[in-house]
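dude i think i finally got it to work??
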Amino acid sequence: MTARAANPESDPLGPDSLTWKYFGDLRTGMLGVWIGAIQNMYPELGAGVEEHSILLREPLQRVARSVYPIMGVVYDGERAAQTGAQIRAFHTTIKGVDAEGRRYHALNPETFYWAHATFFMLILKTAEYFCGGLTEAEKHQLFDEHVQWYRMYGMSMRPVPETWEEFQEYWDTKCRDELEINRATLDIFNIRIPKPWFVLMPTPVWDQLFRPLVGAQRWIAAGLFDPTLREKAGMRWTPGDEVLLRIFGKLVELAFVAVPDEIRLHPRALSAYRRASGKIPADAPLVEAPSFTAPPRDRRGMPMHYLPHRKTLLDRAGSLVHTTFSLSVLRPARKPAQRRTSAA
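look at this
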């Protein structure tokens, strides 16, 4: 694979891009288990999550608030590079030595790019399975856009493949030779949807009602994993499962025809479209996570945490709707995970 040389700064992505079309769509949340697991399978990234993340302590808040700046690198327009620098700064202190004696740092260019590569693949898989599919030309366009998007972080471009074809080789090699099933990955496999504070029912009842949905999320993840990763994870997948997933994806695609943008789009994305269309000023304040997603008070002085500001009631309501229904707000189960797991 040819490494990409450093290039001058590029413009941020805009509303004419395919990345804008897909990344802020609520359907990406259906791949929450997939992206959480495959990110953590990268040894350095998994080690950082194990030793520095507080996902187990406050899962809903941790995931919900992280999505806002991540979306911002795509949707913040002229402020996207500033948002990218903010995210980069969150990772400066995430470093150490893992259980195998391997040193890691979240700002290692290969590690940082791997996380970005999974977001790019998140878009491709969401579009392929739940939004009607992509042409080869569109895949090439999305690849070029993911490079443009990555420049907003101000990171080394050394790990970035030169072409879509080289990226496919990069992805296959990572899945086959480098990814592993570690503790952080197993935590993602064993997840449950936390009960929102405003739902007036006992937590055990909530868990029983949503158990089938949790199983469906794991099943979708199994279907989207590369075969080598399914084998590593001990997941089962049959031709019949593939047919069912394709049928389910088509039903989701049809159902979302009637879903309004206010629900379909992440609040950061919706605001960006409104700025681009002139409905709100171009310099309007960026939409931030609801204040209830703030990190615990004893962690708020730490550089790795994004601290959202207080929101208006309208913004808070919109954010709450998206956060509640997005499948990315998943947390690991409380019981210990087993080493091998089933797609069911």
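Strands lie at 95-97, 103-105, 191-192, 331-332.
im so relieved honestly
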